[in-house]
Amino acid sequence: MRTLACVVATVLLVVTGVSATTPSAEPTARAPSPGVPAPMPSPADRSARAEAAADMPPPAAATRGSTPTLPRRAVQPGPVFVVGDSLTVGAEPWLDGVLRSKGWRVTGVDARVGRGVGEGLDVLRSQGRALPATVLIALGTNNLRATPSEVAGWLRDARRIAGARRIVWVGLCLDDVLVPRLSTFRAMNRALSAAAPRFDVEVADWCGYAAARGIRTTYDGIHYDDYAYEWRAWFYGQALDGRLSQPPVTDARPTSRSR
């Protein structure tokens, strides 16, 4: 009889389509493990998301303590010269293609690992009249002990070299949570913001841009992986387009990732 009852029960389960292991409700989404950062967008989404993110405002946490955004500047793409340090070296493989896609023509990219501001200004000076109408400067990472008067001197010298040309200067963004000694970059950003209007220099807010998009440094708090460097190339393009002409967000907290 017990065997017959088992057979009958099995037949009923098959006929009604009910499984003995069917849950009574759908499972809820599994929460991410604590301490695991959200993944960056997949490589296939890079170009589309970069353009779509151009006008995305930074989150409230990234804008705390910042000064108001300057009005967007109407810019006509044309020839541009770029001078920088290791952060531009990292972005350089994508830079020409990104800028060309936006209508810019790169007349030169002169970047070197370990370059200081003085050497970079000498590079601009050596160009003489060959400098195009727009110059992008991404320097300062190797001069973190500079005083506000020294920073103002950089902008003054850049203006003297460039004459009436447009100057875009990229602000700094280092991870001083991961490496506390890098915190002096905040004072440099403040000095850039204070001096820029006097010398008609646009300061592009890399820190706010990076924080808004979850772009992280590597273990040293300064440099990036290839994926983030590709984003930096897009950032240069958007800065040249006049979309990021604002003082640096000096209180933005970059998110770090160790290797």
Short synopsis of the structure:
With 259 residues, the chain is an alpha/beta fold. It has helices at 2-16, 46-52, 60-63, 86-101, 117-127, 148-162, 185-195, 206-212, 226-240, and strands spanning 79-84, 105-111, 134-138, 166-170, 202-204. The longest helix has 16 residues, at 86-101.
- What CATH calls the topology of the domain at 78-240 is Rossmann fold
Which class of the domain at 78-240 in CATH terms? Alpha Beta
Number of helices: 9
State the share of residues found in helices, binned by percent: 25-40%
- How far apart, in Å, are the first and last alpha carbons? 65 Å
Rg from alpha-carbon coordinates: 26 Å
CATH superfamily name of the domain at 78-240?
Answer: SGNH hydrolase
Average pLDDT over all residues: 77
Overall structural class, as computed from helix and strand content, comes to alpha/beta
Q: Tell me, what's the shape?
A: globular
Characterize the biggest β-sheet: 5 strands, parallel
Element layout with pairings:
Blueprint: H1 2-16, H2 46-52, H3 60-63, E1 79-84, H4 86-101, E2 105-111, H5 117-127, E3 134-138, H6 148-162, E4 166-170, H7 185-195, E5 202-204, H8 206-212, H9 226-240
Parallel strand pairs: 1-2, 1-3, 3-4, 4-5
Helix pairs in contact: 4-9, 5-6, 6-7
In words, what does this structure look like?
This protein is an alpha/beta fold and 259 residues long. The protein has a domain at 78-240: Rossmann fold (3-Layer(aba) Sandwich), CATH 3.40.50. The protein is 39% helix and 10% strand. It has helices at 2-16, 46-52, 60-63, 86-101, 117-127, 148-162, 185-195, 206-212, 226-240; strands at 79-84, 105-111, 134-138, 166-170, 202-204. The protein has a five-stranded parallel beta sheet, sandwiched between helices. Strand 3 (134-138), helix 6 and strand 4 (166-170) form a beta-alpha-beta unit. Helix 4 (86-101) packs across helix 9, helix 5 (117-127) packs parallel to helix 6 and helix 6 (148-162) crosses helix 7. It is globular and about 40 Å long. The model is unreliable at 1-72 and 246-259 (pLDDT under 50).
